């Protein structure tokens, strides 16, 4: 397992500026103008290869000795670029090894494209030898290279955690990853495990995880001594069978990613701590495996949460909101200035917005504005969903205070978010219902685990918390 510091060394900018070759970023309607300024041999090569500067296309131009002299990266037009992000990461995959530098790139796009290049260097190689792109980038001028390397390291940590299968990523392994991160940044960490969860009044975390021979636990670490208090809560269900409401085989196939909320929170936590943001950070991760055994929770059971609210279990596969409920209650007791939960919580969210958008819930107008602005600035798309009050009745079964899985199937992501909000107390609160998985490869985002919303939140924090 790569640690955050390992990832920083791996996903780093090149430093051999003297040997760097130029990568000319050319828009389609500017190609003829660019060619007119080039030597005849370059013009002939480009035209002979049919290069049109279409978005995502790359062409290496050789010198007299046959070695690369320069390269062209097609940048299409504004309409084409608006349909995606990290476009120059495609060039990173197409270029030969060695250092490269951007030429002709709009400075306003430099940060996004430089980060995309770093992220394109990620490869999950724990079980099969593979490498990221061999082409390295010289950090563009006026880009904070160290900051981007930290962000890339946080994303690499998230991807590594999600990509690791459950046989090697149980609650105890997730705890070890948290311990490594806490040690790296001199954070203070405590862990409550197994039956001790009951003694600390964390009954829902215990109930969800008690059927597994890998004990459930609540991981709690804190960092920072100045500034506003931020609490991050990440769903750490390391594998989800569905419990007694057993998932089908096809639905269970990707459940190693059900700790994607915790993985994303840890990646964001690394970014915050490595950048030394002036805030007090607390990370809460309920880490469990939702397994099947004789002592598994049953449909129809009524459980009492840390907050005292009773919950009817109408589906044991709606377990994520249960472990988050206790963690949110604990977090709210600390009266943070902002509390954020991240979870791969509902299939309804994926159906609503697909795998590329991070749906989130928030009522605070200033927080919403900060998140939307941050997401737009760092190319980390989000979509606000409604805490729709008329649906509150759907999560009230009558026999208990709350229902963990309302019947009917309508508004599944919204009712889950409303359920969680009941446990956030008076805290300023946002909830992210993410997918955490890239089903098909895209520039800077290989198929597999992916962080969603972390960079948007990092960009939002200065405004959201008046840092």
TrEMBL record:
Example of a GO cellular component annotation carried by this entry: cytoplasm
Cytosol aminopeptidase domain span: 315-322
Superkingdom of the source species: Bacteria
SUPFAM superfamilies, alphabetized: Macro domain-like, Zn-dependent exopeptidases
GO molecular function: manganese ion binding; metalloaminopeptidase activity
Matching InterPro entries: Leucine_aapep/pepB, Macro_dom-like, Peptidase_M17_C, Peptidase_M17_N_1
Protein name: Leucyl aminopeptidase
Species: Pelagivirga sediminicola
